[in-house]
Amino acid sequence: MSAPTMDEAAKVFVDPAAYADDARLHAALTHLRAHQPVARVESQHYRPFWAVTKHADIMAIERDNNLWLSEPRPLLATAAADDLGKQQLEAGMGLRTLIHMDDPHHRDVRKIGADWFRPKAMRDLKVRVDELAKRYVDKMRDIGPECDFVTDIAVHFPLYVIMSLLGLPEEDFPRMHQLTQEMFGGDDEEYNKRGKSPEEQLAILIDFFTYFGQLTASRRAQPTDDLASAIANGRIDDEPLSDVDTASYYVIVASAGHDTTKDAISGGLLALIENPDQRDRLRRDPELMGTAVEEMIRWTTPVKEFMRTAAEDTEVRGVPIKKGESVYLAYVSGNRDEEVFENPFRFDVGRDPNKHVAFGYGVHFCLGAALARMEMNSLFSELIPRLESIELAGAPQLAATTFVGGLKHLPIRYTIR
């Protein structure tokens, strides 16, 4: 069976600007789900891959982590960046986070931080998160009647939570925010301060590793009761984590732990602004907050994709995939699959069931999912009852990306009591 020719719609996967244009993106994804749900993608700057756009196929691949491996290509990057990353790892300076690993090493490394995100830990943290939610809604009130919700509120609330969990000093928060923007925002001109080349992006990674190397030394010398100390002193088979694995653990928690939540919070508020009937429904029935949060996460899908590589010859929906070939799990598409979600383009705060794949699935299910849900629940539970009016004060702007992203600006006009 010969490989199908590349559908023009599949070009969206290698075009960061497509994720800044919802209409264009979803038109392409809808077309691919209907006509080429396993689409071959070839591009000048990327190695070829297969884009998987149906929810059922994404779930099946996520379930079978023996057949579908994260290494060596866990996410979409240019061929030059892939090569540089491999060279950096060989030199002991690359990034190897949980998303890069396969079992059994992935399982062992994940255990080191898992207790900090279990239900008991979340219950213990909830009082503090609720306090921070009130602080930021109060701030929103105080700086009103207009603000940029992304830069004034949505960035800072989850950043403060995750940095506090790690036990980092507040004066370091702005630095961590800048590094995260540069790491995840390299495809967007506004965020890209150092350039797009792999060598320029390496400078960002070196800054992360320098900062967290100092943190590791400090926590090993004087352990404390925080997540940073748990990572610094984590052991596998009675051996400490390697320098690469330790620094990488910090990077994924500090960066993904707040940036993705920022995207879900800001995109969730925009959805409530654009769907006032759903906002009113949520105000009348606060018991819907749990399902509302899940719908915001489905709607925004901050992590756009991960990739897997076939460990042996196989097929997806009848399309042969050879050993060593990679598939792109299009979470944004899976979360609009008409076969899974009734009226998938309707924002519904009471949607139930809501089997979205925004947190992934299987062994790589997002470690911080419970924390993200709690943060969103706390913030919107504080905001919605106090919000007397809200409207756009300008055009929302989405960031260009191929991996993690969402709104970079959300100008609003409002009254809060």
Automatic annotation (TrEMBL):
InterPro entries given in the database record: Cyt_P450 (IPR001128), Cyt_P450_B (IPR002397), Cyt_P450_CS (IPR017972), Cyt_P450_sf (IPR036396)
Family per similarity comment: Belongs to the cytochrome P450 family.
Official protein name in the record: Steroid C26-monooxygenase
This protein's pathway: Steroid metabolism; cholesterol degradation
Keywords (A to Z) from UniProt: Cholesterol metabolism, Heme, Iron, Lipid degradation, Lipid metabolism, Metal-binding, Monooxygenase, Oxidoreductase, Steroid metabolism, Sterol metabolism
Biological-process GO terms, alphabetical: cholesterol catabolic process
PANTHER family in alphabetical order: BIOTIN BIOSYNTHESIS CYTOCHROME P450, P450, PUTATIVE (EUROFUNG)-RELATED
Species annotation: Mycolicibacterium diernhoferi
Cofactor requirements of the protein: heme
Taxonomic path: Bacteria, Bacillati, Actinomycetota, Actinomycetes, Mycobacteriales
